[in-house]
Specification:
single chain; about 350 residues; alpha/beta; TIM Barrel; six-stranded parallel β-sheet; 14 helices; 9 strands; about 45% helix; about 10% strand
Length: about 350
């Protein structure tokens, strides 16, 4: 199977965005605030947005299954308070669950959390439990910066996050470390904020002993790990200066990287530097980079082409990147597939 571990519902029906606009307007004028029950999205609306977009491209590009979560930039945890985020997360997570029910062979859900700046992460646990136990979610998205580019939260190694980690370990469910919209003019959302966060999350783990406290905790760092593979020598050297173990022992039993890297040299570097067991196929299609590369004539986010073309992987290693690693890291995904005889 070709399993894409990083997909977002970026093509959700327009009614979702319109409801969100009303919710945001209601923060200033409560009379404008909508109820969740006022959002009406039919199964046909969902079918149309998926069949004409993600599913069409999956078929064209040859991928089989996508781990599918709400649109990352729409999480916008900096807006409103916890109640705002809780309502919004519940709506978005239910939509992704409905996608997985309408297209069970092609999508399986991952959840956004109702995070809010300054709010204890344990308040997110009820939504996580619901999504795992009722929706069959196989992953969560964890935002290390709910403030939207101002970085007011403690680092991921801080005990602030431990209640959430304890639940993740209990469910054996990984978190993709994924920030949302930047409201800081210094950081473009997808061009710098996302990649900064990927690099920052890795470094927060490197400087800590988080995985001694949680030996089975698993993080997926997207977008190829930000700057991490390109500066692998820097991180190895910093770990050495900090008297940490070798990175293979210190971090690589718990941290994994996806292939949302949008040119061949980038994938070549990723697959040369990072051990194959830590690389999972992903495209984040119809995401941050949607255009066609004039140098190749193909979509930038058609990452399967790069995996197929790289000389750094043999057939056995490609199997691990495309399927084997995803099933090992996302154990709930593996269980769901085995239940289908796959």
């Amino acid at each position: 199977m070709i399993i894409d571990v990083h997909g977002h519902y970026t093509t959700a029906p327009a009614a979702l965005g319109q409801w969100r606009d009303r919710q945001i307007a209601g923060l200033k004028d409560p009379s404008q605030a909508p109820k969740a029950s006022e959002l009406h999205i039919s199964d046909d609306d969902i079918r149309e947005t998926i069949e004409n977009n993600q599913l069409r491209l999956m078929r064209e590009r040859g991928s089989d299954l996508t781990i599918f979560s709400p649109r990352a930039s729409f999480m916008a945890h900096h807006i409103g308070d916890f109640n705002t985020s809780a309502t919004w997360a519940a709506i978005c997570n239910e939509l992704c669950y409905r996608v997985s029910q309408l297209f069970p062979d092609h999508f399986i859900p991952a959840a956004m959390l109702p995070q809010s700046p300054g709010v204890d992460p344990k308040t997110c646990i009820p939504e996580l439990v619901k999504c795992v136990e009722e929706y069959g979610n196989v992953a969560i998205n964890l935002n290390p910066d709910p403030s939207g580019g101002h970085w007011t939260s403690p680092p991921l190694s801080d005990h602030h996050w431990y209640p959430l980690y304890e639940k993740m370990v209990e469910y054996d469910i990984p978190a993709m470390i994924h920030v949302s919209t930047s409201c800081n003019a210094c950081f473009h959302t997808t061009g710098s904020h996302y990649l900064n966060a990927d690099t920052t999350a890795f470094m927060q783990c490197l400087t800590s002993d988080l995985f001694k406290d949680f030996p089975t905790l698993k993080f997926l760092i997207p977008h190829g790990g930000g700057a991490v593979p390109y500066h692998w020598g820097r991180f190895r050297g910093l770990a050495q200066e900090l008297k940490k173990p070798l990175l293979e022992e210190h971090l690589l039993n718990n941290i994994f990287f996806d292939t949302c890297v949008y040119h061949q040299p980038g994938i070549d570097l990723l697959t040369k530097v990072i051990p194959v067991k830590n690389i999972l196929f992903a495209s984040e299609m119809i995401g941050a980079v949607r255009g066609i590369d004039p140098q190749t004539g193909h979509y930038y986010d058609d990452t399967k082409r790069y995996i197929s073309a790289t000389e750094n992987l043999n057939d056995e290693e490609r199997f691990l990147v495309y399927e084997g690693n995803a099933r090992r890291v996302f154990t709930r995904l593996d269980t769901a597939l085995k239940a289908r005889g796959l």
